[in-house]
Amino acid sequence: MVELDFSKSDDGLIPAIAQDYKTGEVLMLAYINEESWAETLKSGYATYWTRSRQKLWKKGEESGNLQEIKEILIDCDDDTVVFKINQIGDAACHTGHRSCFYRKVDGDKIVTVGKKVFNPEDVYK
Known about the structure:
Elements lengths: L13 E7 L5 E7 L1 H10 L3 E4 L4 E4 L8 E8 L6 E7 L15 E4 L2 E4 L7 H4 L2
Parallel strand pairs: 1-6
Antiparallel strand pairs: 1-2, 3-4, 5-6, 7-8
């Protein structure tokens, strides 16, 4: 298995950026630990460690919006990855937006620039 350096953080987590492999759009940032890394490599689908629920989280397990791994990039320090993915389903964001980065800073305010592609209340029960 490809080794990453999970020892650099106290909690053993490193950032994983999910990026659409066709468009280059950054869809989300999450964290992985050794267990989720191994599962991602084994399954071919992005699996993260959810800090709020303290468990493995296969992206899309509830919503059906899976992330099929197409390519993985590793930074020079072996402590950050980019998952180039095929986003199966309409959205990567639990808010119903395609990308978690659907807002931008405009002067002294935050402006929503992305549109919702699904209603989260219909998906997450």
